[in-house]
Amino acid sequence: MAIRVVLKSKRPVLTSILLQNLANSPITGSAFPVNPRIPHVQSNSHIPISGLKQYHDGRPRGPLWKGKKLIGKEALFVILGLKRFKDDDDKVERFIKTHILRLLKMDLIAVLTELERQEETSLAVKVFLVIQKQDWYKPDVYLYKDLIIALARCKKMDEAMKLWECMRKEELFPDSQTYTEIIRGFLRDGSPADAMNIYEDMIKSPDPPEELPFRILLKGLLPHPLLRNKVKKDFEELFPEKHAYDPPEEIFGKY
After folding, report:
1. What is the dihedral of CA 152, 142, 125, 214, to 10 degrees?
2. How confident is the model over 11-29, as pLDDT tens digits?
3. What residues contact residue 109 under an 8 Å CB cut-off, 6+ apart?
4. What is d(CA 148, CA 164) in angstroms, rounded to the nearest whole number?
5. Which Pfam families match (predicted)?
6. Where are the domains of the chain?
7. pLDDT per position as a tens digit, 131-145
8. pLDDT over 70 for what percent of the chain?
9. Is residue 18 classed as helix, strand or coil in its secondary structure?
């Protein structure tokens, strides 16, 4: 009990001594700085995150393909007007002069793409001819490709070949998909000789041919063994690891 009394009596004395020492020697440092410096972190927002890829449609980001691929009101109005007058050539030509010629570049391309999607290929050809007359137009293989494929799928091979010749005059080369659709179109149309002409052009192309056009020809030329043997020989030379299947004669049929 005596010890407790002594300790209680010394507490006020010790407290006063500590307060005097603090007043005489103020704190000069602190565990928490007043203005802490935040380290500079370099922004790498332009670098893609590891494991993720940035995809696009594979087309060059040239002047014809900038902007959003949305159809504006003007383009929709033109599409509806062309479809309304498509059975009257005079009205179509008048509509082109009054409405289509004043469209902006991206609206013209949007009209062309939508007409191709709706298989309005005759109207799409007219719009393409308008595009070719614009000051900003430069030969573009993708514009030709989409329209040629649309014509071939609609069995309009004469119009497709006219565009094909124009494309070659502008020193543009079709890709494997374009060759495939043209060859398929001629075989579907019952014109194996024309399909072989396109095949010869494909062999001479600066780009190496792909396997799919050969497969289509090997199937479509079953009723024409001489032509098929030539294609088969080239196929085995270009793709030695692949095998060309020869079905029995009793199941030969036209493609």
Report:
1. -10
2. 554 455 555 555 555 555 4
3. 64, 131, 143
4. 7
5. PPR_2 (PF13041)
6. 174-255
7. 999 999 999 999 999
8. 69
9. helix
pLDDT-derived band at 202, boundaries 50, 70, 90: very high
- Side-chain-side CA neighbours of residue 18 (13 Å): 6
H or E, element range at 225:
helix 225-238
How many residues appear in the chain? Answer: 255
Cα 174 to Cα 33, 54, 234, 237, distances in angstroms: 69, 26, 20, 22
Residue 161 and residue 140: Cα distance in Å, rounded?
17
What residues contact 166, with CB distance under 8 A and at least 6 apart? 144
Radius of gyration of the chain (CA): 38
Contact assessment for residue 232 and residue 244, using Cβ atoms and an 8 Å cutoff? yes
Number of H helices, E strands in the chain: 11, 0
User: DSSP per residue over 53-89, as a string?
Assistant: -----S----GGG-S-----HHHHHHHHHHHHSTT-H
Question: Which CATH class name applies to 174-255?
Answer: mainly alpha
Return the axis-axis angle of helices 121-132 and 105-117, rounded to nearest 10°: 160
Asked if 84 contacts 123 with a C-beta cutoff of 8 angstroms, the reply is: no
The pLDDT value given to residue 65: 41
Pairwise CA distance, residues 110 & 68, whole Å = 10
Q: In whole angstroms, what is the distance from residue 244 CA to residue 232 CA?
A: 7
